[in-house]
Design goal:
There is one protein chain. With about 375 residues, the protein is mainly alpha-helical. The strands form 2 sheets. A two-stranded parallel sheet has the order 1-4. The chain has a two-stranded antiparallel sheet with strand order 2-3. The two termini are about 35 Å apart.
């Protein structure tokens, strides 16, 4: 606990020091200037030592710094303390209601991860046993948990206003793939070589990657630089998270979760319901990006170093493509009325939103041609 607290505090100090000039420039001009290119020895050395001891990179991370190791309870005596209204932050950059809401909504979402893990394992176990009844029950329970996660995510709109986001967003940016740090950062007393690290990003969370691996979305992602960025994000998570994600991916592929689902029409619809929750999550994330970020800035790179116009749509469109492909294999005549209605709704939603998304991305490329092309050529293929 002491090492985790030290790591969190040092990463806040390092980000504040390196990015403060960028924030001042953004406030004055709406553009990000250069950050400080050297992290002084007094921060660089202890940060690197602590990071090495806990198996982290010496820079701010989503789980170990900004979100999941950055809250406590207002009331520790409650029988069920793990909910938004009982959370309070330990460290912030501007301390605004917007920042509190932004971080703690993420924490509240992850509060459902116990059920996510339990039901994901149940799906895998049932697939390994070829137990259709247990498989369907596990998929239903998983879907209920994903509904809870998405509903919690929706509360971001009221708990963190978009106007306040840019008051602290600068400080969660990284030193990799960012024009503010063209050659990375020199850590005094640590190395003579400059280093580059991705910034804090909700994309470092482990919930959707768990679902990706379980439903074999990961196996069906396109092979391109955007997907490579997604995989690189995995290295910015705690080691036990990565171990679990790898286990889920291996078991899902070994037991062919998707193929087992497709052997039965009802199972396929239940699978599609969960895949649709993945779509809904990513669609909401994309909507947040447009409202909280692109509305106020034309900076082409997200906090984690991914191209802002095209990276999220890469995953989102892949999920919707898979949803449509799997949906086409369903024999609708084999479904009862309830699952037939669910199936029809899922197919209509995925087909329509997929078409809208592709048109929207092309429009954004036309609206921001310089920033979009620059981000893709410089950062996606680096």
């Amino acid at each position: 606990r002491l090492l985790a607290a030290l790591f969190r505090d040092y990463t806040f100090a390092a980000s504040s020091y390196l990015l403060e000039p960028c924030h001042a420039e953004f406030k004055a001009t709406g553009k990000y200037g250069l950050g400080r290119q050297t992290l002084p020895r007094v921060l660089a050395v202890p940060l690197s030592i602590v990071a090495n001891k806990i198996g982290a990179k010496p820079f701010m991370e989503y789980a170990l710094s900004y979100a999941l190791y950055n809250y406590t309870y207002k009331d520790h005596t409650l029988a069920s303390p793990l909910h938004y209204d009982n959370f309070k932050l330990i460290r912030t950059f501007d301390g605004s209601d917007a920042e509190h809401g932004f971080i703690l909504v993420h924490v509240a979402m992850v509060a459902h991860s116990g059920n996510l893990v339990k039901h994901s394992r149940a799906v895998l176990d049932a697939a390994s046993w070829k137990d259709r009844i247990a498989f369907n029950e596990a998929l239903r329970a998983l879907h209920a948990t994903l509904v809870d996660i998405n509903q919690t995510m929706e509360s971001m709109w009221k708990r963190s206003n978009s106007e306040g986001y840019n008051e602290f967003r600068t400080f969660i940016m990284g030193t990799k793939n960012q024009p503010m740090f063209p050659d990375g950062v020199l850590y005094e007393g640590v190395s003579d070589e400059r280093t580059q690290y991705r910034g804090e990003s909700g994309a470092n969370d482990s919930m959707i990657p768990t679902l990706d691996n379980l439903l074999q979305v990961t196996k069906n992602l396109p092979v391109n630089p955007l997907t490579s960025v997604l995989k690189d994000f995995r290295t910015y998570r705690p080691g036990d998270h990565n171990a679990f994600l790898s286990q889920v991916e291996e078991r899902a592929n070994n037991f062919d979760v998707l193929d087992f689902a497709k052997e039965d029409a009802t199972s396929t619809v239940l699978y599609l319901q969960n895949l649709d929750m993945n779509r809904e999550f990513r669609m909401r994330h994309w909507n947040f990006t447009k409202e909280y970020i692109m509305k106020y800035s034309d900076h082409p790179v997200a906090t984690g170093g991914s191209p802002i116009v095209s990276w999220l749509p890469n995953q989102l469109s892949s999920v919707m493509d898979l949803l449509c492909q799997v949906g086409e294999t369903v024999d609708a005549s084999a479904l009862d009325e309830k699952h037939g209605e669910i199936y029809a709704r899922l197919m209509e939603t995925s087909t329509t939103q997929n078409r809208i998304l592709k048109r929207e991305v092309e429009t954004l490329r036309e609206k921001y041609p310089d920033t979009a092309v620059a981000a893709e050529s410089k950062y996606e293929n680096k």
